[in-house]
Amino acid sequence: MHAVSSRLARRRSLEGGSCLLALMAIVLLAGCGSSAQQSANVAPASEQTTATTTPATPPTTASTSAATPSSSGPPSFVAHMTTQGGDQVRIEGRFGPALAASESDVEESVLGECTPPANDGRAMVIQLDVTAVLESSLSAKVGFETSAVPSNSMSFTMGYSQRASCEREESGAPSAELGTLQPHQSASFTMWAVLADAITPNDPHPTEKTLGAQELLMTVPKPRLNGEEVRGRLTVSGPRVVQCHVDDSASEPVGAEYIAVVGDTPRTLVQPECVG
After folding, report:
1. CA-to-CA distance for 129 and 192, rounded, in angstroms?
2. Under a CB-based contact definition with an 8 Å cutoff, are residues 234 and 79 in contact?
């Protein structure tokens, strides 16, 4: 009787152990299934980092066009004006490349004003970005004016805020008003030199050297203060500055400084049109 009771107790113990093992297996399987489901819904850490730190590519804008002057490197020219009253203005200019009119940023209707009677596919355009900085201690209304010397079939399109407009020599020196500036404040303006007959059947793609041989010059942009032209000490420097002399044989050559619209232009010229 004692032996039978012992066997029954051992059997119940084994059955209890088996149930416990089975229960543990169910719990482990449930846990594995939950972990597997969680792993399937979470991306690897490396992918998460890439998705959150990679910046979006900025959209392309008009400022990246081929006509836009480069903002790297020194300006094409820098002009400083100091008046007798102590006003100081700095004007910087940057030229873009010479492009066929169809490749420029100027509207076709506006170009037609500079190339009458109509656009004939012969014009080239060079963009010029001008920045004026008021360097003196009092605010002032700042502008500038310039002109082509000699004209050589060159005119200017001015990027006025309401509408761009072609300004030809017969209508006076092209000018622009940049508004009232506070001390050390700057303002920018865009204009274009239009070369009306630069492209010909014999030279449909003029190079910088070919255009430079035409000696296309413009006067150094002179500041205007409070709507009027001012006189003072004007100095100019930069890679586009050209010394133009009336007669190099004189002991003290008489002439003036101009700005080369095309980069491949001689930096010293002898022309009877040069004036002081």
Report:
1. 8
2. yes
Of all residues in the chain, the percent with pLDDT exceeding 90 is 51
One-letter amino acid of 42: V
Quote the CA–CA distance of 129 and 151 in Å, as a whole number. Answer: 20
For position 42, what pLDDT does the model report?
37
Report how far residue 240's alpha carbon sits from residue 157's, in angstroms, rounded to the nearest whole number. Answer: 20
| pLDDT digit string, tens, across residues 98-142 | 999 989 989 888 888 888 777 789 999 999 999 999 999 999 999
Q: Identify residue 274 by its one-letter amino acid code.
A: C
CA distance 82 to 223: 10
Helices (H) and strands (E) in the chain, counts: 4, 15
Closest CA to 219 of 161, 156, 157, 264: 156
Say how far apart CA 202 and CA 114 lie, in whole Å: 23
Vertex 102: Cα angle to 96 and 106 (nearest 5): 60
Answer for the pair 194, 114: CB distance below 8 angstroms, yes or no.
Answer: yes
